[in-house]
């Protein structure tokens, strides 16, 4: 879902069927401490707390040629209870000889804590199936004792980014560490959990011609006693920190000269930029942005991060998607940082405070840490450039994707990584909600106090909410009986979001507000939905007293199903609740209020007074509520009438989503042609006004023109089709068409949809004859559009015959998967696929009898996308005709029948309403 953080707030359309997807909205890849599928699957190798580390002393000696390293660690330990066992983390690949392990007890009576006596090590062994190493002692050590544990070890330098790894760029190599979330145990024996925060004293061997950068600066460098061409860097002791923030990089690095003469306080860390060569011109602008971002973040927290330097190392081919944010050392992939985005830089800097200095106790609270850093990075971007970097799509892109995902019957049913990401995104939006409802000053002061109280410590979620509650109570922005733990808890407890419905009584000037689970997919039979209730801030704007700068709740719905409110305006004035998407929930109104909102937005003053995000929200809520069955489609269509005058790209972006979703939803009905005429009437004035592209124009305008053009082409806009065919003709007339494709991608689908059979056949030949020397993703795209954009059944039949029966070497099993999936994007596609399956049942069944994956996919694609009674009857007939012969796909076709039955209800209820509205609209336009 990054943001969303991008991956750039861009709207993606997966041709051939132009399926719209929400993307993350900032412009970056999400960062650590980072929740991911791997984090969710972390083994719970938790250590006992009978012994705790107090400090580490580590020496590391990499051997580049052999791809190994050796080292020695001394850990100061204190006994919290009597025991003769020391348990710590050590990966299976870390070699330890227990005969060389030493344990010495410290004499606490000696002021210098001199070593007192040796404790005999009986043996060392690994815990079964866990990366835990246990040192068994011959005697029980009493509570309160202190010992030094010394362990020599050897390990491997990895090619992949786990533990200590090796990379290369051009003729240069480098060593770097990536220890998140629990890979410190690959590098040295340790207590590899975030909660164990202690100082490290580290020395690392390197070749004389290289540089090693560590968490802290070099204190001194000494000669190596054996390797004469090597030296040993001894680094300053680190502050208390978790093992996952330990890191270093060794290579032939070039330091960017600091000629900006930026003023800094003595308490500020020095920020250095490093790369593999002199990149002063390329990095100077980013360096300046980094300094500005750091200053902005420090001013927000009101306290400098307690380290003397932050080194930023830019690596061209860093094999990690996200940056590596060790304390005092950041590793960026060059392609990420050179995009000049404040967001990427700000998020990594924020982790220096919240992540390294103040740390989640365990990875289950990681989503909170990530959400907080992401929100603050967004605020930093807005502070520095007014949000220009986001292109106006934060937080809407994030929010819309959450609305979509959490309204499914089975959110993230098979995608663990997506689940972890959306939990973090939702938490970020809850923090944003608190920033509005508590006030920016309260949130800022609360976070500052939180950092002061938990510096060098770890926290759990309740610690943060308690700190913010205390500040809000002190500032008077929260009622004395409220606690944020209770409020936030309802938002984080469910993988759902609420919707509120406002019914106004225009005679008594009162309103009833009800909440329920927001669901779009039918049937709405989610278990326990009646038990799901949220604390919801009700922020009201009345037409006669519009004030969109006030975000204080009129009232909180205190985890209750319904409330009543008074003092509503008269029957000629609308109300707006949850302006600017302050809280992550859609809002429904009674028919009369919607009618007044639609009329107001069609006036110039209405579009001027109502802010951008609020206009987008009203439009987005209306369409999604209609899709869910909670609002008439006539009302939803009425809310698009103001788009005739609207030119803001933020408001247009969700419109393309609605067009795609409804267009695909009614694709098989007779109403669809009228819907395409409506789309042409809606988009043509916008496209004509946008005009020809200008090189210096803003990106939002380019994106808006591109989206408009794509949908106009899909709906049969003649100028677009002519442009597409003219561009395609160039390819047709090339002497060597297999060597390259000169046609822009957005022109290919219109040609295959609206063009001739000869043009389609030419595309098919290019797929069959596609050279292996060219980029294969180009062939994939061409095959997707051949299948998904074609509307003539004879073309689709030809492609299916070739790919399934003719054993053509160019069509692989993956191609068949792709073709089946692409055909589900339109009614002509899945309708033809169904007919092909019905007509050739016996040879197809024989063909796929030993390939259950492909067979199951075919049955699902051919039967799972019908939406009408006619489609239900067709699938049921196939089911009965071949009863008992579906094999592994038996449950798939049965599920298809259940779903189609539900979808037919939607069609019966909504298609007549949509057709009536379209008839009326087209008669006037």
Automatic annotation (TrEMBL):
The cross-references to SUPFAM superfamilies, in alphabetical order and at most eight, read:
Leukotriene A4 hydrolase N-terminal domain, Metalloproteases ('zincins'), catalytic domain
GO (cellular component) term, any one: cytoplasm
Q: Which residue numbers delimit the Peptidase M1 membrane alanine aminopeptidase domain?
A: 295-472
* Database matches in InterPro entries: Aminopeptidase_N-like_N (IPR045357), Aminopeptidase_N-like_N_sf (IPR042097), ERAP1-like_C_dom (IPR024571), M1_APN-typ (IPR034016), Peptidase_M1 (IPR001930), Peptidase_M1_aminopeptidases (IPR050344), Peptidase_M1_dom (IPR014782), Peptidase_M4/M1_CTD_sf (IPR027268)
Name the coenzymes or cofactors required.
Answer: Zn(2+)
Q: How does it sit in the membrane?
A: Lipid-anchor; GPI-anchor
Q: From the UniProt annotation, give the residues forming the signal peptide.
A: 1-27
Could you list this entry's UniProt keywords, alphabetically sorted: Aminopeptidase, Glycoprotein, GPI-anchor, Hydrolase, Lipoprotein, Membrane, Metal-binding, Metalloprotease, Protease, Signal, Zinc
Catalytic site positions: 348 (proton acceptor)
Please list the GO terms describing molecular function: aminopeptidase activity; metallopeptidase activity; zinc ion binding
This entry's comment on the bound cofactor is: Binds 1 zinc ion per subunit.
User: Residue limits of the Aminopeptidase N-like N-terminal domain?
Assistant: 53-244
Query: Which biological processes are named by the entry's GO terms?
Result: proteolysis
Q: Where is this site: Transition state stabilizer?
A: 425
Q: What is this protein called?
A: Aminopeptidase
What species is given as this protein's source? Drosophila virilis
What is the gene name?
Dvir\GJ26333
């Amino acid at each position: 879902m990054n943001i969303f953080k991008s991956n750039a707030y861009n709207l993606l359309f997966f041709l051939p069927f132009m399926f719209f997807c929400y993307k993350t909205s900032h412009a970056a890849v999400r960062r650590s401490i980072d929740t991911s599928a791997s984090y969710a699957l972390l083994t719970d190798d938790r250590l006992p707390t009978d012994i705790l580390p107090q400090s580490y002393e580590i020496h590391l000696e990499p051997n580049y040629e052999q791809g190994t390293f050796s080292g020695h660690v001394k850990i100061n330990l204190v006994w919290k209870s009597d025991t003769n066992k020391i348990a710590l983390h050590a990966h299976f690949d870390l070699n330890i000889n227990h005969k060389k392990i030493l344990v010495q007890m410290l004499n606490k009576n000696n002021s210098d804590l001199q070593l007192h006596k040796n404790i005999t090590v009986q043996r060392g062994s690994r815990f079964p199936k866990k990366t835990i190493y246990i040192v068994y002692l011959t005697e029980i050590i009493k509570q309160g004792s202190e010992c030094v544990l010394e362990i020599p070890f050897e390990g491997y330098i990895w090619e992949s980014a786990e533990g200590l790894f090796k990379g290369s760029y051009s003729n240069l190599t480098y060593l770097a560490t990536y220890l998140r979330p629990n890979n410190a145990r690959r590098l040295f024996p340790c207590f590899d959990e975030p909660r164990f925060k202690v100082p490290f004293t580290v020395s690392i061997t390197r070749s004389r011609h290289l540089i090693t950068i560590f968490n802290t600066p070099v204190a001194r460098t000494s000669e190596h006693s054996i390797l004469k061409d090597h030296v040993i860097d001894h680094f300053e002791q680190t502050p208390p920190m978790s093992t996952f923030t330990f890191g270093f990089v060794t290579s032939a690095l070039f330091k960017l000269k600091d000629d900006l003469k930026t003023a800094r306080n003595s308490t500020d860390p020095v920020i250095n930029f490093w790369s593999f060569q002199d990149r002063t011109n390329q990095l100077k602008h980013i360096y300046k942005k980094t300094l500005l971002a750091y200053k902005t973040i420090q001013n927000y927290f009101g306290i400098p991060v307690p380290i003397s330097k932050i080194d930023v190392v830019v690596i061209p081919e860093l094999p990690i998607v996200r940056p590596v944010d060790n304390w005092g050392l950041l590793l960026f992939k060059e392609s990420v940082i050179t995009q000049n985005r404040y967001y990427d830089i700000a998020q990594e800097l924020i982790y220096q405070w919240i992540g390294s200095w103040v740390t989640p106790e365990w990875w289950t609270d990681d989503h909170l840490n990530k959400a907080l850093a992401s929100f603050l990075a967004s605020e930093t971007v807005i502070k520095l450039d007014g949000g220009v970097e986001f292109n106006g799509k934060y937080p809407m892109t994030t929010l819309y994707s959450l609305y979509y995902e959490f309204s499914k019957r089975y959110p993230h049913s098979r995608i663990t990584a997506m689940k972890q990401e959306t939990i973090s995104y939702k938490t970020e939006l809850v923090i944003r909600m608190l920033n509005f409802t508590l006030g920016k000053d309260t949130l800022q002061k609360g976070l500052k106090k939180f950092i002061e109280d938990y510096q060098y410590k770890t926290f759990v979620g309740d610690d943060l909410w308690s700190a913010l509650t205390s500040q809000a109570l002190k500032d008077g922005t929260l009622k004395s009986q409220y606690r944020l733990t209770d409020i936030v808890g309802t938002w984080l407890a469910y993988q759902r979001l609420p919707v509120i419905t406002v019914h106004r009584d225009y005679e008594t000037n009162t309103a009833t507000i009800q909440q329920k689970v927001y669901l779009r997919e039918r049937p709405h039979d989610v278990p326990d939905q009646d038990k799901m209730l949220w604390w919801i801030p009700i922020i009201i704007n009345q037409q006669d007293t519009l004030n969109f700068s006030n975000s204080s709740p009129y009232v909180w719905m205190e985890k209750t199903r319904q409330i009543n409110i008074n003092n509503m305006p008269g029957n000629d004035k609308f109300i707006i609740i949850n302006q600017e998407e302050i809280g992550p929930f859609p809002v429904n109104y009674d028919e009369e209020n919607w009618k007044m909102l639609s009329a107001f937005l069609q006036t110039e003053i209405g579009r001027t007074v109502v802010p951008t995000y609020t206009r987008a929200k009203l439009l987005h809520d209306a369409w999604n509520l209609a899709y869910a069955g909670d609002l008439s489609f006539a009302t939803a269509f009425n809310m698009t009438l103001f788009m005739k005058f609207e030119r803001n790209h933020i408001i247009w972006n969700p419109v393309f989503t609605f067009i795609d979703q409804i267009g695909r939803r009614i694709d098989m009905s007779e109403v669809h042609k009228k819907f395409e005429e409506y789309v042409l009437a809606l988009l043509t004035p916008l496209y004509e006004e946008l005009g020809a592209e200008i090189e210096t124009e803003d990106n939002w305008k380019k994106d808006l023109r591109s989206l408009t053009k794509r949908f106009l082409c899909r709906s049969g806009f003649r100028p677009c089709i002519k442009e597409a065919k003219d561009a395609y003709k160039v390819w047709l007339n090339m002497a060597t068409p297999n060597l390259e494709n000169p046609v822009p991608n957005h022109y290919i689908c219109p040609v295959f949809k609206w063009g001739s059979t000869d043009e389609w056949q030419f595309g098919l030949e290019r797929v069959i004859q596609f050279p292996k020397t060219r980029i294969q993703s180009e062939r994939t795209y061409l095959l997707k559009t051949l299948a998904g954009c074609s509307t003539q059944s004879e073309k689709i039949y030809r492609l299916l015959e070739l790919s399934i029966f003719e054993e053509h070497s160019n069509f692989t099993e993956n191609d068949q998967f792709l073709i089946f999936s692409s055909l589900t994007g339109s009614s002509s596609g899945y309708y033809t696929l169904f007919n092909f399956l019905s007509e050739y049942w016996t040879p197809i069944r024989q063909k796929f009898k030993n390939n259950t994956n492909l067979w199951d996919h075919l049955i699902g694609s051919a039967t799972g996308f019908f939406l009408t009674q006619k489609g239900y009857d067709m699938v049921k007939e196939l089911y009965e005709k071949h009863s008992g012969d579906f094999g592994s796909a038996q449950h798939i076709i049965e599920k298809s029948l259940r779903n189609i039955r539900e979808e037919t209800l939607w069609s019966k209820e909504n298609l007549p309403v949509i057709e009536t509205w379209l008839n009326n609209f087209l008669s006037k336009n």
